[in-house]
Design goal:
The complex is a heterodimer of chains A (230) and B (286).
Chain A: H1 8-48, H2 52-66, H3 70-89, H4 99-124, H5 128-136, H6 141-171, H7 183-194, H8 197-226
Helix pairs in contact in A: 1-2, 1-4, 1-6, 1-7, 2-4, 3-4, 4-6, 5-6, 6-8, 7-8
Chain B: E1 46-55, E2 58-68, E3 73-77, H1 84-91, E4 99-104, E5 107-108, H2 116-121, E6 123-126, H3 138-148, H4 154-167, H5 183-195, E7 201-205, H6 213-228, E8 233-236, H7 240-246, E9 249-254, E10 257-263, H8 264-269, H9 274-284
Parallel strand pairs in B: 3-8, 3-9, 6-7, 7-8
Antiparallel strand pairs in B: 1-2, 1-4, 4-5, 9-10
Helix pairs in contact in B: 3-4, 3-5, 4-5, 5-6
The chains are: A mainly alpha (230), B alpha/beta (286).
């Protein structure tokens, strides 16, 4: 199997693998993580709001997303969003949103459910006295959240948020079901074209491992630096 | 009820305004407080009228009525669980109450039309556990509410904050974070943070009970200075030395009721209720 291992196929496809594949993967990861954290924070605040309807809606959303396989949600959105778009705009034909937009929306909405649970724990970890002190200084609920609670919650939860982002980075490889060319997809295409499956899949695994392992190590180092002294 | 009639409010000492004072001109000698301008409403600063509060079935406050005049220092004491912290938190509506009314400087606390953040911005509060914001530097702790709530320009807020930090003797720590200060130092910063908002009244909720014994004095010194400068204060505390030194009146609470509401002299001289006598003999015994 390794007798005719050909390194040159990897070397010659590097520009394609990284210039297209990895750029796509990183773009999707960064955009979906940012959107997911923002939407997830909103979901967490809804869930903690104590307003019956709002709390319940957020809870149902989070539980549903967390109970579905990601690949199913990707399919579901890809085939359904055009019809929902058509229905919403009153158009007679399905709205074409494109595979990338569809994937981005899916990952954002799906990851938001996970980020929401992290942020919920983060917000709950802030002592009640902090909110009381902010209120006593005349801050509104929004100011209390924005200036006092969320900055502390984000800092406490940063390691978990980044770890979840690393998981997201790996999960983006699932966009192959929409025939999008992410890093994994690019490696796969070269492998099929040149009949070099072993080389390409080994190399892809190695790259994913190197990126995630380094990122995890950096997160651990960061953890000690951002911790708030109490 | 054994309440005694209200004594006349202590005359506020006329003092120079502090916020406009030049940064170098004899700051140490200056007062901690800018006396509030005489307002049109001449009534009491705080009027608590027949306030009752329940946690579910459990009644924590029963028909509490008292007043705090302008410039007056009122100490609230009583055994733990007597509702004194709850009562003081009702004053700025950090705790809701079901019956009665509280009026702060002419504004009704329990009123649909009342803008609570606006009311709270005028009422300073100091907490048992300091509650400085740990993610912000001392300077930012002192300025954030001034800027975001009062809309003061950054430079003015900073000047006022650092000015007050100097008054509580902590200028050297402006760039540090709360976690780097001792408990006593944090509490002094917390007092400065509340004063930075130019409050018309200051509420203290057991400000020294979470402190190591050797740090109690430095915090009480700041509070005594504040009282002598004419600040209206409502103080929940077990520090009877503080009460003897600066209080005008002492309120004794037990099981959610105001049992005794008397001048300092009357309270320490001869408390009328048996429960207050027992309480005093216990805490003054050692």
């Amino acid at each position: 199997m390794f007798a005719n291992f050909d390194v040159s196929v990897i070397a010659s496809s590097l520009p394609y693998l990284f210039g297209q594949g990895m750029v796509f993967t990183l773009t999707l990861t960064a955009l979906a993580a940012s959107g997911g954290i923002v939407f997830g924070t909103a979901l967490a605040m809804m869930r903690l709001s104590g307003i019956p309807g709002v709390t319940h809606a957020a809870k149902i959303y989070v539980e549903t997303m967390r109970s579905l396989p990601l690949v199913l949600v990707i399919f579901w959105f890809y085939f359904l969003v055009p019809y929902i778009g058509a229905w919403a705009t009153g158009s007679a034909t399905p709205i074409q949103v494109g595979a990338f937009a569809s994937a981005l929306v899916t990952f954002t909405l799906f990851e938001a459910a996970y980020f929401a649970e992290i942020m919920r724990a983060g917000i709950q970890s802030i002592p009640k006295g902090q909110t009381a002190a902010a209120s006593a200084l005349g801050m509104s609920y929004a100011q209390t959240m924005r200036l006092v609670v969320l900055p502390q919650a984000l800092r406490n939860m940063l390691p978990l948020l980044l770890t979840q982002t690393i998981v997201l980075f790996q999960d983006t490889s699932l966009v192959y079901v929409l025939s999008l060319t992410d890093f994994m997809g690019a490696a796969s295409k070269v492998a099929q074209r040149d009949g070099r499956l072993v080389e390409m899949y080994l190399f892809a695994a190695l790259v994913y491992f190197a990126v995630c392992f380094t990122a995890s190590w950096l997160v651990r180092r960061l953890q000690t630096r951002v911790a708030i002294i109490r | 009820m054994t309440s005694t009639p209200m004594p006349a409010p202590a005359a506020a000492t006329p003092t120079a305004p502090t916020s406009e004072a030049p940064a170098d001109a004899g700051l140490r000698a200056g007062p901690l407080v800018t006396p509030p301008p005489a307002t049109a409403t001449a009534g009491p600063m705080i009027a608590i009228e027949a306030v009752s509060k329940w946690y579910g079935e459990f009644k924590v406050l029963t028909d509490c009525t008292t007043r705090v005049a302008r410039g007056e220092v009122v100490v609230v004491c009583g055994p733990s669980g007597s509702g004194k912290s709850t009562l003081i938190k009702c004053v700025n509506a950090l705790e809701p109450f079901q019956e009665g009314q509280i009026t702060v400087d002419g504004t009704r606390v329990k009123d649909r039309g009342t803008n609570l953040p606006k009311l709270r911005a005028r009422v300073g509060m100091v907490f048992q556990h300091f509650e400085l914001f740990p993610h912000l530097s001392i300077t930012d702790n002192l300025t954030i509410a001034q800027r975001k709530v009062l809309g003061r320009p950054g430079e003015d807020a900073r000047k006022r904050g650092l000015d007050l930090l100097e008054r509580v003797g902590l200028s050297a720590h402006a760039k540090k974070y709360p976690g780097q200060l001792s408990g006593g130092q944090q509490q002094r910063v917390a007092i400065a943070r509340a004063l930075a908002m130019n409050p018309v009244v200051m509420l203290f909720d057991e400000p020294t009970s979470a402190l190591d014994p050797e740090m109690v004095g430095e915090v009480l010194d700041v509070m005594v200075g504040l009282a002598r400068d004419g600040m209206t204060m409502m103080v929940v505390t077990h520090e009877m030395g503080f009460a003897r030194k600066v209080a005008d009146r002492v309120i004794f609470m037990d099981r959610g009721e105001i049992v005794e509401d008397a001048t300092k002299e009357a309270f320490f001289g001869q408390p009328r209720s048996e429960r207050a006598q027992q309480f005093l003999s216990k805490i003054l015994a050692h």
